[in-house]
Amino acid sequence: MVPLAGLLPAARRWADDILAGAPLSVQATKEAVMAGLGLPLPAAVALVPGTMAKALVSEDQVEGVNAFLERRAPRWSGR
């Protein structure tokens, strides 16, 4: 729970965390969320693998793993 006075700073931190993610993963997540609006939860969750497939075989996926193993910040390319 965030107090009203801290709502905007908390939202900005959350947005910054999202924007720091791999662009293809962020895009795929947004597509899954938008496509799942109004659907029952099991049907919405079933959309995730289809939207994430491209991100899971991308250069950014390899970069994310390498950055983690090398303990450095990832350098996303959006490919």
Could you walk me through the main structural features you see in this protein, from its secondary elements to its overall organization?
With 79 residues, the chain is mainly α. It is built from five helices and no strands. It is flat, with a radius of gyration of 15 Å.
Largest sheet composition: none
Mean pLDDT, as a whole number? 93
Strand fraction? under 5%
Radius of gyration: 15 Å
* Secondary structure tally: strands: 0
Task: Summarize the SSE layout with pairings.
Elements: H1 7-19, H2 23-36, H3 41-46, H4 48-56, H5 59-69
Structure in a nutshell:
The chain is mostly helical. 67% of the residues lie in helices and 0% in strands. It has five helices and no strands.
Keywords:
79 residues, mainly alpha, flat
